[in-house]
Amino acid sequence: MSASPDRPRALVLAPLRGEGKDILESVCDIVYEPWIEKHPIKLYNPDDLAAKIAEVGATVLVCESDNVNGPVMEQPLKVIGCTRGDPNNVDVEAATKAGIPVLRAPGRNADGVAEICVALLFAVNRGVVVADKECRAGEIYRDGTIPYQRFRAWQLAGQTVGLVGYGAVARALEWRLKGLGMKVIAYDPYVAEATYSLEDLLAEADIVSMHAPVLDSTRGMIGAEQFAAMKPGALYINAARAALHDTDAMVAALQSGHLGGAGLDHFDHEWLDPSSPLAALPNVVLTPHIGGATYDTEANHSLLVARDIAAILAGEKPVNCVNPEVLG
């Protein structure tokens, strides 16, 4: 694509769709190379990314997973749009020193992650994965039993869910759970509406669902003591980050039967060793960090980032800038 002399050029490495893509195309000439549509996927390191920016003459960068630091900040960028809620792939401090505003897309995947939490909750509580496996293997009447004997469970309606962390995902999950007839309580020391202490939440909740960010203060916050404090038979859902719990302590609680089951959508290093005890536990449902993997997430982040890029190019104030001090 040949650049228009009066229009900036954007290197777009994140997937865009919907109204947001239309907005960005209206204000920029676009070089569109979304990482997720490459097979195998292609993620730039800082040196290669800086070279690519220079090659195409981009002054706008839109990214999701590429490593944006070092020589990238030496390019004449007017704005970096990161389509993540937390732009942790961007060296924000270096961008600030270079005078480059960094945008983010808060809450882009809240509904998608809330839906995977509901899916995990049903799957764990009703033994959906094991039941499916037995149907496929011709073991419906395994060992002379009937399914009604093996898969009885308490219904979710009437049970209490404790949300640890009360941000966008937790709020999106809350109304879904209430729609199922469940009571919802929450712990978050930074949100006034979350009125429970962690200790009281663990003692009352039938299901504990994790939604806290990973900070020094939250890393490993659910350990042996906290699992022991949960109700016997409680369920544990974590579609946030595995760093929030002690995996060995969780496995021990599951193996002992004190923890009734777990649904997990994230593992350390984004990978689960097949030899992990988690993979052998029938009361655990595992998904490979797909909570936010919806086309709606892409449409949401496209609109949030594109609107702010258009604002900056028009000399206006963006809504979701993590370093507004560079805007002058």
Descriptive labels:
single chain; Rossmann fold; 2 domains; six-stranded parallel sheet; 11 strands
Describe the protein in words:
The protein has twelve helices and eleven strands. The protein is α/β, with parallel strands linked by helices. The protein folds into two domains: 134 residues, Rossmann fold, CATH 3.40.50.720; 177 residues, NAD(P)-binding Rossmann-like Domain (Rossmann fold). The strands form two sheets. The protein has a six-stranded parallel beta sheet with strand order 7-6-8-9-10-11, sandwiched between helices. The longest helix has 19 residues. The chain is elongated.
Summarize this entry quickly.
34% of the residues lie in helices and 14% in strands.
Helix/strand layout:
Layout: E1 9-12, H1 19-27, E2 29-32, H2 46-56, E3 60-63, E4 79-82, H3 92-97, E5 102-103, H4 110-125, H5 128-136, H6 147-150, E6 160-164, H7 168-179, E7 183-187, H8 198-204, E8 207-210, H9 224-229, E9 234-238, H10 247-256, E10 259-264, H11 277-280, E11 284-286, H12 295-313
Parallel strand pairs: 1-2, 1-3, 3-4, 4-5, 6-7, 6-8, 8-9, 9-10, 10-11
How do the strands of the widest beta sheet line up side by side?
7-6-8-9-10-11
How many distinct beta strands? 11
SSE topology string: EHEHEEHEHHHEHEHEHEHEHEH
- CATH architecture classification of the largest domain: 3-Layer(aba) Sandwich
CATH superfamily of the largest domain: NAD(P)-binding Rossmann-like Domain
Q: Give the N-terminus to C-terminus distance in angstroms.
A: 33 Å
Instruction: Please identify the top-level CATH class of the largest domain.
Output: Alpha Beta
Q: Approximately how much helix is present in the residues?
A: 25-40%
Q: What would the principal axes of the Cα set say about the shape?
A: elongated
Instruction: Summarize the biggest pleated sheet.
Output: 6 strands, parallel
Number of helices: 12
Structural class: alpha/beta
Q: What are the segments in which pLDDT stays under 50 over at least 5 consecutive residues?
A: none
Structurally, how many domains make up the residues?
A: 2
> C-alpha Rg, in Å?
23 Å
CATH topology of the largest domain: Rossmann fold
Proportion of strand residues: 5-15%
What is the mean predicted local confidence, pLDDT?
96
